[in-house]
UniProtKB/TrEMBL annotation:
Identification of the protein by name: Molecular chaperone HtpG
Gene name for this UniProt entry: htpG
Lineage: Bacteria, Pseudomonadati, Bacteroidota, Sphingobacteriia, Sphingobacteriales
UniProt entry keywords in alphabetical sequence: ATP-binding, Chaperone, Nucleotide-binding
Assigned protein family: Belongs to the heat shock protein 90 family.
Annotated InterPro entries: HATPase_C_sf (IPR036890), HSP90_C (IPR037196), Hsp90_fam (IPR001404), Hsp90_N (IPR020575), Ribosomal_Su5_D2-typ_SF (IPR020568)
Amino acid sequence: MKEKGSISIHTENIFPIIKKFLYSDNEIFLRELVSNAVDAVQKIKRLAALGQFNGEIGEPLVEVAVNKEAKTITISDNGLGMTADEIKKYINQVAFSGASEFVEKFKDAKDANEIIGKFGLGFYSAFMVADLVEIDTLSYQENAEPAKWVCDGSTEFEISEGSRSTRGTTITLHINADSEEFLESFKLQEILDKYGKFLPIPIQFGTKSIQEEDGKDADGKTQYKSVEVPNIINTTSPIWTKSPTDLTDNDYLDFYKQLYPFAEDPLFWIHLNVDYPFNLTGVLYFPKLKDDFDFQRNKIKLFSRQVFITDEVKDIVPEFLMLLHGVIDSPDIPLNVSRSFLQADSNVKKINNYITKKVADKLDELFKKDRKAYEDKWNDIGLFVKYGMVSEEKFYEKAKDFALVENTENVFFTLNEYKDKVSPLQTDKNGNVVYLYATDPTTQDTFIQSAKKKDYDVLLLNTPIDTHFVNQMEQKLEKTLLKRVDSGLADKLIEKDEKTESVLSEEESGKIKALFEKVITKPGYTVEVEGYHPEELPVTVSMDEFMRRMKDMAKMGGGMSFYGQMPDSYKVSINGNHKLISKILSAKEQDQEKLAQQAVDLALLAQGMLKGPELTAFVSRSVELI
């Protein structure tokens, strides 16, 4: 049997196109060929289960081998095999029409997956790395004869009698000069680990040495010897393919360690399993997060029938859950998936919504089941929840019942509980409930204590997402304002109908204002003399709440860059009722400026704004005044 012919592709430049446009992703040739081999083995198992094949299946196996001297890579399986006619049908007819249109449309393409997926070119990805490809195959069908197919990367092929004596297929790639990196065993191992770690059929790549017991020596000590065993690179039944009822917590934790060997144990996990209206399995883990949460992204791995596709799952997983770790497997997502497919496919959108709902349901369950344990985890999961509330309206509607806020006394409240707690005392003259919050309790302690003297409560909002969370709470919670505790004295932050008048006359107020304006030489400071409780600070320096918040958002890249470029502006509030102000007024003229400067520096020190030479001068002046 010998036959020559031309591959039916309507153009002779398909292989240069494959090599040129797919070159940057050339490692996927191994994924494609190994996946095809796995499919062939699964199909023979399926036929046997259906009673359509009565022969011996044997141990299912796919073998990958490399011969550096011969410059070949082989992929062998004991699956279905093919007849010569099937080779002609499945290999020789590249199934797309209008190859000229294809060339024009994809001449600038950068996404190999898009091209391969669109035109079923999985097998032909072999020509990204090979000058010559051989297929040696024997079909499972009775009386089938072995067949061999050879192609040198042109549109010409040759079919002749094959040499296989057992069912299955062997593909041999004669690696081209530009791709000899793939003749290194470590490189192939790396690719197999990446794409085939959880394939459902054992994948063998050479052998490996293990230590086995070999009796005991004269002293009774166990002896060991090195033994060569098959190097099976994959786990064929990962936990996401199993029922949650068959798994223990240790199974989930062991799998997490397999995925992320150096990570801390996760907080908890969610097992995904749905078969309608789409197919999806997987396990998502909530990791312990660091503040630099952007660094944690791209930790979810996307699979299609246990074949790794990508860890860039932005369109499948909601943005705020990109911080999760784990795996998602869906046969509804093609193996060769492109970004444009993910963005347009309706199943992907359904999967996105489903995952959002599952995460919300799990968090709600944890909250209701054991609130204390939930609170203990809040510092880790709070970032997820707040991020989700800010970015996903549907998630906000669910999360508002289990989202927590924490005050500076480390007590947790739901949003409704907190409103009930502070409304009686912290409602201003306009009927707004005012939430006071601290971002750094250590440096803001003076202002926190000032608020507590009035029995006001102060929230702790100090995570990277809280700048945005503060804005959202103001938008969502009816007649509610949030003000940072150091953006003014408590009397001003929550204004009541009653007002404390200044004991200073108009002339004295003018004199004090002029004095302080004289000692404050930096630009951007405005001075006001007002009446506060005598026990409040004599001088405070604060930034307007709105302006400071916009600047914080600008630092986080929140689309507020305009505010980030504006010069800082501060308000200096002089408490006309404090005894120090009266002391300054009655001091000798030569001492007034020194005392005023000291009072301003104390206010700056309370805000962490006194540094460098100004701090040194303040310390020297303090020693002098003492």
